């Protein structure tokens, strides 16, 4: 009987304090508290929230959140600038057209629950290509966009996701970027 009374007392104490320990499900997706860490662009606008040290989650519109990569900024002597970053490029986007203009597709990222995305440097800035959510497909690819430009190819590639939207990260959230 004593064990039951102690167990009931502990359970009641935990139940009485669970609201303080649990996250409120209605707060998911709402505006973060003022003390939350965010990646801020050179204009003072919040650009993204961190997923890890180099992957940021950018809201690109319509409730779509996509991963975007950042990298440190270096001075002329190749020393890392304190507290500053810029958007990273170096990804690839695969196209069904022969000139990198139509039928864009991207590969998935190795992080559970994170959309497929790729960032490519263009003359107008670093463009984030955001993939669809769902199963991967196999597509006949006729060109690939690299940081160095468009290259024609002919290949059938599996594991791809169609691009649903793009955003010019350089113009939407101009560097330098910093955590605040």
Key traits:
six-stranded antiparallel beta sheet; mainly beta; single chain; globular; 180 residues; 2 helices
Structural class assignment: mainly beta
The number of E-state strands comes to 12
Provide the residue-averaged pLDDT. Answer: 85
Strand order of the largest sheet: 5-4-3-2-1-12
Q: Name the helix and strand elements from N-terminus to C-terminus, one letter apiece.
A: HEEEEEEEEEEEHE
- In percent, how much strand structure appears in the residues? over 45%
Cα-atom radius of gyration: 22 Å
Helix content: 10-25%
Assembly annotation:
single chain
Number of H/I helices: 2
Count of discrete structural domains? 1
Low-confidence stretches: 1-29
Q: Which outline best applies?
A: globular
Rounded to the nearest angstrom, the distance between the terminal CA atoms is 55 Å
The major sheet is characterized as: 6 strands, antiparallel
């Amino acid at each position: 009987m004593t064990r039951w009374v102690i167990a009931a007392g502990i359970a009641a104490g935990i139940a009485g304090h669970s609201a303080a320990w649990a996250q409120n499900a209605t707060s998911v997706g709402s505006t973060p508290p003022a003390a939350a860490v965010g990646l801020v662009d050179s204009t003072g606008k919040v650009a993204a929230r961190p997923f890890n040290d180099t992957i940021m989650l950018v809201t690109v519109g319509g409730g779509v959140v996509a991963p975007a990569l950042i990298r440190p900024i270096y001075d002329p002597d190749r020393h890392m600038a304190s507290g500053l970053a810029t958007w990273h490029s170096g990804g690839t986007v695969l196209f069904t057209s022969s000139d990198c203009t139509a039928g864009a597709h991207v590969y998935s990222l190795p992080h559970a629950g994170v959309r497929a995305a790729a960032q490519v440097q263009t003359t107008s800035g670093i463009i984030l290509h955001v993939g669809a959510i769902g199963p991967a497909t196999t597509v006949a690819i006729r060109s690939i966009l690299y940081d160095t430009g468009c290259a024609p190819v002919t290949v059938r590639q599996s594991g791809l996701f169609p691009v649903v939207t793009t955003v010019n990260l350089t113009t939407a959230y101009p560097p330098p970027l910093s955590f605040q």
